[in-house]
Amino acid sequence: MPTLPGSNTPFWQRAPKLILRPLDYFEDNYRRYGSVFQVGEKPPSIYVADPAVIQAIFQADAAQFHIPSQSPGSGLTFLLGNQSLLLLDGERHRRHRRLLMPPFHGDRMRAYGDVICTLTKQAMASWQPGTAFNVRAAMQDITLRVILKAVFGLGDGDRYDRLRQLLSTLLEGLGTPFSAFFIFFPGLQKDWGPMSPWGRFVRIKSEIDALIYAEISDRRQQPYPDGTDILSMMISARDAQGEPLSDGELHDELMTLLVAGHETTASALAWSLYWVHWLPEVNERLHQELDAGGLSADPLADANLPYLTAVCQETLRIYPVAPTTGIRILNQPMTVAGYEFPSGAVLFPNIYLLHHREDLYPEPKAFRPKRFLERQYSPYEYVPFGGGHRSCIGSAFALMEMKLVLATILRHWELELPEGLRRPLKPVRRGLTLAPPGNLRMTPLAQRAAQRQALPLG
Ligand code: HEM
Hints:
Blueprint: E1 6-7, H1 11-20, H2 22-33, E2 36-39, E3 45-48, H3 51-59, E4 65-66, H4 77-80, H5 90-100, H6 108-124, E5 133-134, H7 135-152, H8 158-174, H9 180-184, H10 197-221, H11 230-236, H12 247-260, H13 263-278, H14 280-293, H15 300-303, H16 306-318, E6 328-330, E7 334-336, E8 339-341, E9 346-349, H17 351-355, H18 371-374, H19 395-412, E10 413-416, E11 428-430, E12 433-435, E13 441-447
Parallel strand pairs: 1-2, 3-9
Antiparallel strand pairs: 2-3, 4-6, 5-13, 6-9, 7-8, 10-13, 11-12
Helix pairs in contact: 1-2, 6-7, 6-19, 7-13, 8-10, 10-12, 13-14, 13-16, 13-19, 16-19
The protein binds protoporphyrin IX containing FE (HEM).
Cofactor: heme
Keywords: Heme, Iron, Metal-binding, Monooxygenase, Oxidoreductase
């Protein structure tokens, strides 16, 4: 059995590059060592960009892996709580997944579709012709409105406004590349008073917690009559023993859905607007498809448009929001495709490197939505949402949201990417995810004539 290529640089030495220039870090290692390599020892971290090995990892029994108490992910405990799906393991992870999955299936999507289009129009009402806006912030405004409405059924009121404002401030603060050190090194999470960076997060977070607990308590006493929002469904869900989720469990899962459910989609949407407005041929073809479809009464019709779908898929391929899947630690040795991974090894299917394999994606640095119309990729070749027992539970929701928000924006506004930004842009770190650079701005030029009637301007 060959030994795995790689280096044994300790974590503290490789962390600055991994945190501040993650894509260069991955690409350097890939060039040097190939599609499966290890870094560090005791335990080694193994990055995988080989579809056959990724397939074996995604198809393996969940009992083969665990999540460590001290991992990059554990730095998220402060934000999400220790009963978050992202941080749970074993039977408790299985139980929570079963209780959380139903709102993300089937018929629910139709109701979310209407909400997404309405809230996008609401957010766009503040755009002014000639006044540039920060693209990621604008997309985050939309996705935060959408997730609050989907999760809580909330759309207005003091609690909603405050929650929206606090979540946005908290995540903006945590979103700088340097704040990522707080996540990777939880030991840095020290409260030195309200003016210190971490002290500020702690105070905002405790106000958010109080608002969420107040909402849970109100809703337990007075359930919504139609009960179609995610919180209502989670309150009434029962596990195999007939047990409901406790207030603490509900709080942590709500926080998880709020954070995981809008940060990621906002970055993906910002990238999609950038690509569409940088590349005229993509813009033209997308508009042709949208114009041919007309304004449908059923927003879900847009979700089936092939080129729009391909643009969103290519957006998530070229710069996946999560550069690797979540952490998976082996409970026992694993032999696959000629490799032997030792017990205790930390496995990371590397989404970015897999999506940039020349053999799967010719000219991988080029944004070419067409490749998704010409070829069907397997769930081990294209993995923006990970896979296996820890796959993203919001993947269908996120993809639909991307398509509907993008279609709604393009139908209503003519936007312009400033001259200076019509060039290759590289992602920057935002916590555990990657986002477009903070200077990505766009200018609304004019509302599209056919749509002026349809957009309620505030
Ligand atoms: C473009 C948007 C999104 C991307 C790129 C994305 C990506 C991912 C990835 C890569 C993982 C880890 C999968 C693995 O380790 O195999 C994940 C997990 C997760 N995602 Fe998403 N996600 C997105 C949107 C959402 C949304 C909208 C929600 C919920 C409303 C959500 C909720 C979650 C949760 C709860 C997990 C943890 C699952 C578990 O550990 O069992 N995500 N996501």
